């Protein structure tokens, strides 16, 4: 039994931030019911290719995007624009501990499914809203997209090749970090609210904003600006305060070297057959190397190109120089540490057969995370949930389907 096996979650969210949060709760044991639009479902069901293939190698309707954020959930389809659909959601909310939604500000109030309305039915309800800009402020009604938030929140101003590199420009992250981090913060906030409810009996409303989150996770970069007043700049893969602490080309790929002190720098260049660089008075100390990075780095790059990535990693690990490869995803999932930690798992699925997933990184000794269900097909559990939670019989469910409510 998971740590949250006593918790029921009604997930009205779609796309990424909300589903990521709900999946975290589901991985920890919560019973999560994902509510989707009849016939269409979560937008991410259609974001592809790639789509998972069935045992005969044919594409299914299960997109890789949807798969990564919806395991351990039960899917039901409900049309909340219709009165009977709204009634179903209200009844399910009355039986739930947590509601998660990421509709535009005010949208659910039109259907009587906002926090104020549902709290009248269940006063101890924990209700989490996730939006681009939060429930207040001049931007509250704007739609929020991760890419735009990365730009507005400062992330892209410090990400990308250094500003003095020809053709350099700001870059977004390779994954939707504003969404992912907001989902993680929402998970933490919900767990705190559950503890508060268990101690006091009080439910509460949680207002999560992608922009708030993006600024917060800039961490030391935000703090550096607030402390100094100096606007942070892009440094590419280099450090503004340590040299060498960056990526380096090898004869067959790239690696990362983090020589954080003078001794490690000496071991690095000695391993590459260029020990004289450590004795050069121009590069003796880290401040010297930072001051003369434009002269030093090309010399180091010429050195690192003489060996393969594997040869360098072996040499530098033996010399206790912090280093690592830049793996493609084939290399990631073939890595012996990734295999040993069982990061990739296989679970049965009704159309795919055996579905490959990335395991949750949360490893608890007493209440371990487990994958109880693969990401659901659209509406896979509608009948089951309506029987179980609302005690509807087959005839009543059939009528709801005929009228397009579910």
Automatic annotation (TrEMBL):
The keyword Transferase applies. It comes from the Bacteria. Keywords: Transferase. One of its GO terms (molecular function) is CoA-transferase activity. InterPro entries: CoA-transferase_III_domain, CoA-Trfase_fam_III, CoA-Trfase_III_dom3_sf, CoA-Trfase_III_dom_1_sf. The keyword Phosphoprotein does not apply. It holds the Pfam family CoA_transf_3. Coiled coil: none annotated. This is CoA transferase.
């Amino acid at each position: 039994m998971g740590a949250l096996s006593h918790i029921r979650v009604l997930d009205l969210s779609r796309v990424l931030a909300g589903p990521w949060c709900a999946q975290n709760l589901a991985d920890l044991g919560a019973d999560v019911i994902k509510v989707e639009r009849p016939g269409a479902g979560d937008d991410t069901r259609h974001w592809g290719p790639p789509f998972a293939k069935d045992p005969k190698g044919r594409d299914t309707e299960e997109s890789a995007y949807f798969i990564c954020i919806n395991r351990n959930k039960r899917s039901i389809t409900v049309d909340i624009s219709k009165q009977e659909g709204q009634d179903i959601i209200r009844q399910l909310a009355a039986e739930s501990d947590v509601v998660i939604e990421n509709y535009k500000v005010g949208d659910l109030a039109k259907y009587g499914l906002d926090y104020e309305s549902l709290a009248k039915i269940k006063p101890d309800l924990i209700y989490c809203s996730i939006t681009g800009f939060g429930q207040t402020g001049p931007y509250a009604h704007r739609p929020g997209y991760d890419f735009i938030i990365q730009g507005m929140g400062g992330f892209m101003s410090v990400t990308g090749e250094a500003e003095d590199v020809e053709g350099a420009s700001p870059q977004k992250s390779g994954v939707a970090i504003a969404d992912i981090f907001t989902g993680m913060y929402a998970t933490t906030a919900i767990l705190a609210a559950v503890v508060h409810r268990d101690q006091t009996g009080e439910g509460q409303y949680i207002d999560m904003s992608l922009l708030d989150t993006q600024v917060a996770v800039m961490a030391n970069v935000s703090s550096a600006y607030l402390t100094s007043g100096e606007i942070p700049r892009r440094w590419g893969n280099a450090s503004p305060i340590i040299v060498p602490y960056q990526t380096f080309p090898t004869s067959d790929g790239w690696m990362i070297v983090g020589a954080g002190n003078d001794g490690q720098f000496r071991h690095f260049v000695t391993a590459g057959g260029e020990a004289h660089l450590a004795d050069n008075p121009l590069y003796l100390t880290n401040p010297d190397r930072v001051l003369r990075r434009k002269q030093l780095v090309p010399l180091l790059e010429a050195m690192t190109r003489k060996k393969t990535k594997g040869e360098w990693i072996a040499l530098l690990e033996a010399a206790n120089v912090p280093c690592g490869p830049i793996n493609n995803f084939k290399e990631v999932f073939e890595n012996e540490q990734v295999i040993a930690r069982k990061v990739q798992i296989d679970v049965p699925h009704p159309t795919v057969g055996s579905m490959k997933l990335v395991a949750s990184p949360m490893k608890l000794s007493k209440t371990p995370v487990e994958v109880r269900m693969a990401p659901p097909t659209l509406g896979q559990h509608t009948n089951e949930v309506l029987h179980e939670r609302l005690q509807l019989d087959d005839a009543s469910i059939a009528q709801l389907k005929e009228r397009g409510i579910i």
